Hints:
The protein is mainly alpha-helical. The protein contains 21 helices and 5 strands. The protein has helices at residues 18-21, 34-37, 42-49, 65-75, 90-105, 122-126, 128-133, 147-150, 153-157, 169-183, 191-201, 205-216, 227-234, 246-260, 264-276, 281-296, 303-317, 321-335, 341-356, 371-375, 416-435; strands at 55-58, 79-84, 110-115, 138-143, 160-163. It has a 5-stranded parallel beta sheet, sandwiched between helices. Helix 5 links the parallel strand 2 (79-84) and strand 3. The model is unreliable at 3-7 (pLDDT under 50).
Amino acid sequence: MPRSNTADLFAADRPAPLADRLRPRTLEQVVGQDHLVGPSGTLTRMLERGSLASLILWGPPGTGKTTIARLLAERAKLNFVQLSAVFSGVADLKRAFDEARKLRAIGQGTLLFVDEVHRFNRAQQDGFLPVVEDGTIVLIGATTENPSFELNGALLSRCQVLVLRRLDDDALEKLLARAEAEVGRVLPASAEARATLRAMADGDGRYVLNMAEQLFALPDQGETLEVPALSDLLGRRAALYDRDREEHYNLISALHKSLRGSDPDAALYWYARMLAGGEDPRYIARRLTRFASEDVGMADPNALPLALAAWETYERLGSPEGELAIAQAVLYLGSAPKSNAAYVALGAARRAAKETGSLMPPAHILNAPTRLMKSLGYGAGYEYDHDAEDAFSGQNYFPDGMTRQEFYRPRDRGFEREIAKRLAYWAKLRQERENG
């Protein structure tokens, strides 16, 4: 059932968690989202204009999506209705829409907040379109997933997507300070343990307050917890990572681009992050093999066999021993000279092949296994390169009627320097023999 802002007569008698007690009561109290609710923030300007649009709030857990939606309804004087896409269905949506229509008839607007909106299927998402278009509701959907992948294009076109940022260290420290003021005592943790607490929260404000509440629940004996005791008490939070969601693609992109940028230390960090998130090392090994060919290429021809060797080593040893071989490949590829000349050359050759259609090879480089083929000139005039001076005949190997193309242009880096010298030498000989 939808939850409205009707007062709960018994709420005051219930013990509220610290995170609920510290929930911001104004937009100005929201931390870490100044780009949205600060003096020049997007939502601040929207409210000043009196034109609150339907929104998709996209961000990690514990960054204030629900709170912001509730405060927007209050500021815009709209009835606040909350649904969760995890627990709601078509009947719940219909009731919410019908109630909004009744309120609209008496001049009261409705802000419908849908948590985890990406959980609704395509048909359910389409159900929002008419009521958003005719102004029956202002829709605010919250999601931790990339809206581009998870939401209908039609719904996205009717909503403005706003990105909430994970809370940085300063924002988390503000929350801890508010918690201390609320409880009336200092958090029983050393400066190092306090920093560890913020790191464990991983940008999640709700999580840091819940952990602080556990510390405040300890008997007040004047003791200060150090990092080991804090870790034993609170355990270790699993990194946010889902192998079939956006974070998977974000981290592999970070790894690939760190390698391309010749930063082996950053690449090793992203590799470790993916392992900590439970990624299959085989997937990483596959991407490293692709990188060796695409981004190192002929600048270091040893890169590709080394990447394959790391992959094979992992297959033989498994985890955790085989992960070291992949780490070795990460370091090798990150520190190797880079060239995408082979990648570019293949693309150019494919375009040329598509444009030139079915041109035959020149007759002199065709085999002539039959008498008929010899009589037609197959193989006539072919010069065996090993018999030529410098083992280079300089003959044309492109199709008749097609001008010579230069697809492969080695970079002046790594082993490709030597390749460039060879190609330049052969081009000189070819020109001399054509002129001679």
